[in-house]
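Lecture 7 notes: from sequence to structure.
We start with the chain below.
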Amino acid sequence: QVQLVESGGGLVQAGASLRLSCAASGRTFSDYTMGWFRQAPGKEREFVASIRWRGDSTLYADSVKGRFTISRDNAKNTVHLQMNSLKPEDTAVYYCAARYRNYGEFNYWGQGTQVTVSS
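Predicted structure tokens for the same chain:
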């Protein structure tokens, strides 16, 4: 089992920045691809960004490219999502997720952290 705990959400104005963090425990963190997803009210959960277990490759949703950056610190078992130039449409609950290397779907999830961007 992998336990994930997110932090860093909050209420900010449009154009501001936030940094989300996710602390992992339970298994060898460096064996897991990590991802961030989000779910806005009334919408389905959507992919935001991911980073491979070695940290050598990242993927981003088109909607956040150039504004968000995912990073990981395998020594501290943490993954971060730096969010810049936030927009009201970024308002959502953000979830940290993990999967073993590149196998299957993300199958470990955190409880989520709320990000609210006011206009």
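Points to note: The longest strand covers residues 92-100. The mean pLDDT is 96.
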